Amino acid sequence: MGLRPGRSYRNLQRPYTRQSIRVPKKGYVKGVPKPKITEFQLGTKGDYDLKLFLVAERSVQIRHNALESARIMAVQTLEKKLGKGASYFLRIRVYPHQVLRENAMATGAGADRFQSGMRANFGKPIGTAARVMSGQKIMEIHVNAAGTNVAKSALKKAGYKLPTPTRVIVETK
Q1: Using CB atoms within 10 A of its CB, is residue 63 exposed (0-12), middle (13-18) or buried (19+)?
Q2: How do the domains of the chain map onto residue ranges?
Q3: pLDDT for residue 49 is more than 80
Q4: Bridge partner residues of 56 (DSSP)
Q5: What is the percent of the chain with per-residue pLDDT over 70, rounded to a whole number?
Q6: Are strands 124-132 and 60-63 parallel, antiparallel or unpaired?
Q7: What does the pLDDT look like over 67-87, one tens digit per residue?
Q8: Contacts of 6 (CB under 8 A, 6+ apart)
Q9: Rounded to whole angstroms, how far apart are CA atoms 173 and 169?
Q10: DSSP classification of residue 94
Q11: Is a pLDDT exceeding 80 seen at residue 6?
Q12: What is the pLDDT of residues 142-159, one digit of tens each?
């Protein structure tokens, strides 16, 4: 079975981590999956003319696979137009701490015989998500003045991969 759609997890709700004193084994999330995002900083650190930021318009949870997809899109666009790693620096500014859980329901013939339904429905960890507030910076790119348009398009393309409307902000040093 594949992943549930992103809309299942994008709403920002109070994190629920069960604390049970009487039954300790039900009092925590067992095992947190590693996030798919591999690198949070890419390119060459240095002194650049401009900083461009990808900013979230709404408060939302962004799953780790969406963050990784946005990172890949931005890096591909930058490397295609500017060249390999030397003329930019990209940083992901959020980290997926929030554990996402799923109470998987069995389907098919005879599924009702071996399933407990909503009894003990805390769920198994299936992934992680970053909690992003409205106006928070998700991603940043440092680039020289010549690469401004390329960096803008890279952030715009990365924003399409995220479950919230985004905008690009340019800052000069």
Answers
A1: buried
A2: 32-103+121-172
A3: yes
A4: 166
A5: 84
A6: antiparallel
A7: 999 999 999 999 999 887 678
A8: 63, 66, 163
A9: 13
A10: -
A11: no
A12: 999 999 999 999 999 999
pTM for the model stands at: 0.84
pLDDT at 9 exceeding the cut of 70: yes
DSSP state letters, 2-71: -PPPGGGT-S---------SS-GGGSS----PPPS---SEEE--S--SEEEEEEESS-EEEEHHHHHHHH
Q: Which fold would CATH assign to domain 32-103+121-172?
A: Aldehyde Oxidoreductase; domain 3 (3.90.1170)
Residues 171 and 30: their CA atoms lie apart, in Å, by 42
Bridge-partner residues for 102, per DSSP? Answer: 124
Is 34's pLDDT higher than 90? no
Residue 151 is encoded by which pair of tokens?
Answer: 């960096």
> Which amino acid appears at position 85 of this protein?
G
